[in-house]
Each structure stands twice: as structure tokens, then as C-alpha cells.
Amino acid sequence: MKLLAKYNRVNILATTIVFMIGGVCYYFILHLVLIKQLDKDLRVEEQEIRDYVRAHNSLPDSADYKDQQVSFEPVAEAVKRKFGSIDILKKKDNEFITIRRLIFPEHISGVNYKVSVSKSQQETEDLIQLIVSITLAMVILLLLVLFIINRFVLNKLWLPFNNTLTQLRQFKLQSKKPLRLDDTGINEFRELNKAVTVMSNQVLKDYESLKSFTENASHEIQTPLAVINSKLELLMQSENFTEQQMNGVETIQDEIRRLSRLNQSLLLLTKIDNRQFEEAEEVDLAKIIVRQLNNYEELIAAKQITLTQHISETPPVLMNETLAAVLITNLLTNAIKHNIDDGSITVSLQQNQLSVSNTGNKLNCRPEELFERFKKDKHQTESLGLGLSIVKKICEQYNFSVSYSFMEGLHTLSIVFPSSTGL
Amino acid sequence: MKILIIEDEKGLRESIETYLKTQDYICEIAIDFNSAVEKTELYDYDCILLDITLPGGSGLAILKELRANDKMDGVLIISAKNSIDDKVDGLMLGADDYLAKPFHLSELSARVAAIIRRKKFGGSSSLHFNNITIDVQAKVVTVNKEPLDLTKKEFDLLLYFINNKEKVISKNAIAEHLWGDEMSGNLDFIYTHIKNLRKKLVEAGEADYIKTVYGMGYKFTGR
Which of B14, B54, B77, B82 to mutate to test the interface with A (most CBs of A within 10 A)? Predict the structure, then answer.
């Protein structure tokens, strides 16, 4: 729920309740006041009648005016003086009207009279009705005004907040661009922007230092690896090894190689992240593919893999040449490594799509995990599990879309280059 | 052939020195920036192995100085910074080649040999091993003056072997030299490749020079 909607809901509910209660109270108070006023008039009339009786010792004429009636009635016993509101049927219009009546006793020459003075309450009722109507109209008007304020003014008030939000959504660590938030002039938003800016700067700084740590660590690891490797190679030149020792040397060699490749792959990933391959040029992918396929000819032949090429002239792609070579190499070696004996590889480059299909065992992980770091087939212990992560990373940098599919025993990796990168 | 090894890492420096000395190179060493500058100013070398990160300064500065003084010593950069920038900078400044750490000593030796060949003989020299002659520039191999038909990879392999004769070369080093370092996993296909080369040499009338060293690799030996 939007903050505004929530606020409005509470606001409108509270306003309505307050106006309702206010309206009811208003009604009763007004009623009371007006009745009091009416009663006062009746009392004045009573006093006039009494004065008349004192002066003349006889009853005045009964009167029947539009808004005031006076009547006398002889009774056996003296009545109690009392005010009351009663509904009476008005004969003329045949409808009920409310009147206010005062009954009081009068004693003239030994005869008890019940005097009743009535005044129509209709005007009072009308007045109250009018006032309540006006109040209701005010409530509706107020709600309308609130709605308009919310709709137009509040949206404008929240604009800086929404701007900040948009900026945050677009914030990318890799782009290294700090947040640029405008001064809004509103304290709350200024505080928010300040906090967000400080936080994003800190995050950028931490990310940078983490990245440079990864890079430095990788560099530092290369040197001891080089020393170990060279010492081992010298050791290999000795001629009096036992078979067991030779096996040991071989294992050490393989592991050094793996460690070194692992290190280099991580370094490459970090460098792509660090945007150290910014220089772009027009790259002829077909040329790279043909060159690489020639290079791997023997490897393909060793597994008796049938290679099919559908490589057509395509527009050059604007990207870093080193990364283009890495991309192609990783795709091809992936297809060779995870292939089966007597399998097949199909490389196709058409317009803005490159796809590499190869035979191979079914995946034992979910396809989307394929591009994650260190996800690899359990049987392929030699594999680092970084090749496709690198492919994905490179594609991300250039907004190429990369996808994987498995159909009829064929694993296919496809890369689609956006046509804008073509020339 | 005189080689200067500029490398501050003791272990690596000693390994390189030991390996190259057995290949009849005369090796001198410099362990920091100042001694390296001193040596390069005073003497001429056939090839300088240059580490980029040195105590006291950058190896690239030494290279710059060298080329500014019109010294044409061959320079092979060996760097832990496997970064494209260093590679490009180094080659722009006139380095002859670039090798990233960690490397195989056999690879280093082959690169050094290639640089010296280019520098000294303008690349026109030929290599000999018993009756085998390799014209490196023309990429032609003759055995007893008869041309030997080799694929490009077989040619590279033979050249690599001869540059590292009498040395045990690991399968990894061979795979990396021929196919780059992207190929991991089973290296059995190298065996097929070696077998083909061996067969061609034997059929041309040579002895079987390629010895399999169990568990480790191969050795090209005339003994």
C-alpha cells in the first residue's frame, strides 16, 4: 500500500468520524438552544396571560395564529406546569408538525383552568436541518479538497523522494559512479539523501578495496607458483626417480597448473568487473573462430569429434579484442572438453547470432546454474567451473544475451549480439 | 650467448639461472633496479630477462632507458602482472616478447632462443640436431637434406624439443606451448601427437630421439 493511500485512509476516516460526532453534537446543542429560546418565548406569553388575568380577573381571548396558539380549558383539578414537544396532525395539509407547548394552571373565580400556549417548532427544525446540511456539504467539500491536495500537492512534495529512489535503482557498483542527489530544500529528504550518499560512497569504497584486494592477491600468488613450478622442473631433470616419485611429481605439476589457471581465471573475472578491458574495436568474429578452430584441430581429432561449421560473413562486433578471443576460446574449449568420444560440434555464426552446439552427457545441475562460478559436472574434476562464468561476464559487459538449451542430446550455447553493436 | 636475469625473487632467479646454464648460456644476475641499470649500461647482452616489479623501480623504466640509448639487447619481459596493459606497454617500448608468471622453464628457454635467433641472425639461422636441420624462418625441416613434411603443430613441437634438448619437458608445458593454456583436463591427446612426430622422424631415417619419461613427460635426446 502506498504511504499516501494509507495516510489518506486514516485521514479521511478520522475526518469523517470527527465531522459525524461533531455534527451530532452540533445538532443536539443547537436543538437545545433553540428549544430554550422557544421556551423563553412561551414563558413571556405565560407571563402576559397571568398579568392579564391579574388585571382583568378574566381570561383573555384564545388566539390561534400561524405560529402561536393559546387555549383555555376548565379542569376539575389544577394541572401541573410543564413544557413539552408534541407532534400534531395539521388539518390543513394533513401532515404532522411538531409544536412546543407550555401548559400551566390558572385560577379565576374559583374555577381551575388549564392554559396551554403552543408555538410551532417547525421553523426551528428547518433551521437545524439547514445547518446540518451545510455541515455535511462542508465535510464533502473538505474531503474533496484533501483529495486534490493529495493528488497534486503531495505528489509534488514526494518528488525528491522518488528521484532518490530512481537514482538508487540505477545505481550500479560496477559503473563506479557515485550517486548525485540534488538538494531538495526539505530537511527530511536532505537527511535521506545525505545518508544514502554516504552509504553509497562507503559501499563503492569497500567494493573497490575488495576488488583491488582480489587482484593484488592473485598477483601475489603468481610469484610463489612460478618459483614452485621452476623448482619442480629442475627437479624433473634428475634421472634417478622411482616410479612412485615420478607419479608424485606429475600430480604436483598438474595441481600447480590448476591453481595457476584458477588464479588467472579469477583475475580475469575481476578485471572484467573492474572494466580493465574498456578499449573496443571492430572485431571480426568469424576470423577468430576459424583461427581458434584450427588451433584446436588436433584436440577435436583426438576425441574423433565431427566438426560442422556454418560460418558466414557477419558485420564486425564492437568489443575488446582480447575479450572476444577469450569468449570464443571458452565456448570452443567448453564444447570440446564436455564432449563425448565420436561426438559432434556445430559452430554457427549467422548475422548477429553465434551458437555452439555439442554432444555430451546430460547436465546434472539446473541450466541456470551453468553460468555460476564453480558450478561444474561432478565427473569433470579437471574442470575449473569458471569458463562459462567468464563467458557470461563478458556478455554482460556488452549487453549480449547468452542462453543455454538442451535438445536431443545436444547442448547449445547461443549468444545474440544486439544489432546496435554491429556496424 | 650472454643473458642477464633481472629478477628479485631469489627462488625463481636461481631456477632460471640453473636451467639456462645447462643450455650453455652465460648468465648474469641483477636483483634490483639499481644493479640492473648498472649492468645494462656497462655491458651488452644477447638477451635480458626483465621482471617488471623490482625493488627500487619499474622494469619498464630500464627498458625505456635501454632503447633510448640505442642498445639493441633482446628483452623478454617476465611478469607476475599478467595484465594486458603491461604487455602492450612492454612491447610498445621495444620488448621482444612477454611471458607471464608462472611459466615453464622450457617455454622460457624456447622464447629466449627465438629472441636470440631473431636478434643475432635476423631470424635466418637454422637449427641443427644430428641430421635434422630446421630453417626457422621458412618453417622447413630437412633430414639428411631431404625435406620432412610436418604439420604446423608438429613443426612447433620439434622446434620446442630441440630448443630444450636433453631436458625432461612436462606434458603440461607441451600442451600450453602448442594450444595455449585454455586446455585443461586429459592431456592424452599429446601422446598421439608425439607418436606421429616420432614416426615421421624414424621413417626419415633418424633414431628415436623422443623418450617417454614415465609420469612426467618427454625428453628429446641424442644420447
Answer: B82
Q: Is the pLDDT of residue A422 over 60?
A: no
A250 vs B contacts (CB less than 8 Å): 170, 215-216
- The residue assigned the cell 619499474 is B58
Residue B79 has what pLDDT? 83
Nearest to A229 among B102, B182, B183 (CB): B102
Helices vs. strands in chain B: H and E counts, helices first: 8, 14
- A310 vs A210: which has the higher pLDDT: A310
Give the residue-averaged pLDDT of B207-222: 88
Residues of B in contact with A276 (CB under 8 A): 83-85
Give exposure, B142-169, as e/b (b: 16+ Cβ within 10 Å). ebeeeebebeebbbbbbbbbbbbbebbb
The answer to whether residues A355 and A400 touch, using CB atoms and an 8 Å cutoff, is no
Reported as a single tens digit per residue, the pLDDT across A173-190 is 777 778 888 877 888 888
* Residue among A129, A122, A21 at smallest CA distance from A66: A122
**pLDDT per position as a tens digit, B49-67:** 999 888 998 888 999 989 8
By the 10 Å C-beta count (0-12 exposed, 13-18 middle, 19+ buried), A325 is classed as middle
- Report the alpha-carbon distance of residue B221 to residue B54 in Å, rounded: 37
Distances (CA, A) of A259 to A218, A232, A341, B102: 11, 15, 27, 10
Which has the closest alpha carbon to B174: B126, B135, B210?
B210
If 0-12 CB within 10 Å is exposed, 13-18 middle and 19+ buried, where does residue A411 land?
buried
Which residue on chain A is closest to B189 by alpha carbon?
Answer: A302
The three-state secondary structure class of A171 is coil
Report which of A188, A145, A140 is spatially closest to residue A164, judged by C-alpha positions. A188
Neighbours of A137 (CB within 10 A): 10
Kindly provide the ipTM of the predicted complex, given to two decimals.
0.85
How far is C-alpha A152 from the chain's CA centre? 21
Do residues A392 and A321 make contact, with C-beta atoms less than 8 angstroms apart? Answer: no
- Chain A contact set for B102 (CB, 8 A): 222, 225-226, 228-230, 256, 260
User: What was the pLDDT predicted at A382?
Assistant: 59
Q: CA–CA separation, A413 vs A418, rounded Å?
A: 16
Alpha carbons A292 and A298: distance in angstroms, whole number: 11
CA dist A168 and A156 (Å) reads: 19
Task: Work out the number of other CB atoms within 10 angstroms of the CB of residue B200.
Answer: 18
B8 to chain A, closest Cα gap in Å? 11
Q: What is the mean pLDDT of chain B?
A: 87
Containing H/E element for A54?
helix A3-56
pLDDT digits (tens, 9 = 90+) for A262-274: 888 888 888 887 7
> Grid coordinates standing for A58?
378574566
At residue A309, does pLDDT exceed 80?
A: yes
pTM above 0.90, yes or no: no
Nearest beta carbon to residue B185 from set A253, A271, A383: A383
Over residues A141-155, the mean pLDDT reads: 82
A338 to chain B: which residues are within 8 Å by CB?
none
The rounded percent of chain A whose pLDDT value lies above 90 is 12
